[in-house]
Amino acid sequence: MTKRAFLVWRWAVVFFANVPNLLMVAWLFFWVTRTSPAPVAGALGWNLALFAAFAVIHSLTATHAWKRLFCSVFPEAFERATYVVVSGVTLLTLLALWRPMPALLWRIEGAAGHVLDVLFWGALGAAWWVSRHFDEAAFVGTRQLAAHFKGAPIVSAPFVVEGPFRFSRHPMYLAMLVLLWSASTMTTGRLLFAVVASAYFLIGLRFEERRLSREVGEPYELYRQHVPVLWPRLTPWTQPDTPPRTVVDRPA
Q1: Taking the C-alpha atoms of 31, 34, 40 and 46 in order, what is their torsion angle to the nearest 10 degrees?
Q2: Alpha carbon distance 55, 200 (integer Å)
Q3: CB 101 within 8 A of CB 44
Q4: How far apart are CA 191 and CA 211, in angstroms?
């Protein structure tokens, strides 16, 4: 791979790993909460089908079968980066094609409304904090691309529990659920998105638990025994010395 190709890949991955998610946050807070007395015909069915298409693509490209197929045709170093780019493109498509459902369900004003807004933006800050405590370069695929460019082997990171992962096994999921439901203004469109996205996160969490148990093994089983899946424990868990395996990461 040439240096120019590597740089193009790296910047594409960085863009699609971050910009679509930031746009989704702005979309949730400003666009999907716009109200109007006029319903949009067929919006419910269209939006459900749109999210289902997003979920199918996002889920299938995370399966081991897809990874084996991809790596049989292309270098393994490109698998994660390709997944991130495809996920970013499909999320942008979802946001762009989502049809408005502007009927107002509630608008909470005053101190209670401000509390919900603070929770919303606080959840975004919490998600950023969580992302500081795992190998983000490996998660989005830029570390694998760099190794391929340098002709170096791809080395798995060790299983490390630190920061928010000492309180909750899936703090990123928790932050996203808080962000979805902290709404001082709730329309039918935002409620629909919150419901289907929450269901998708909770289903994905179960598969993520199975994958981590399979890949990490006994150290992860010990981790499961002491740290709650979502709601944080009151005191941080201290990880015992274990052989290096696979790092805990954020939602796929």
Answers
A1: 30
A2: 7
A3: yes
A4: 30
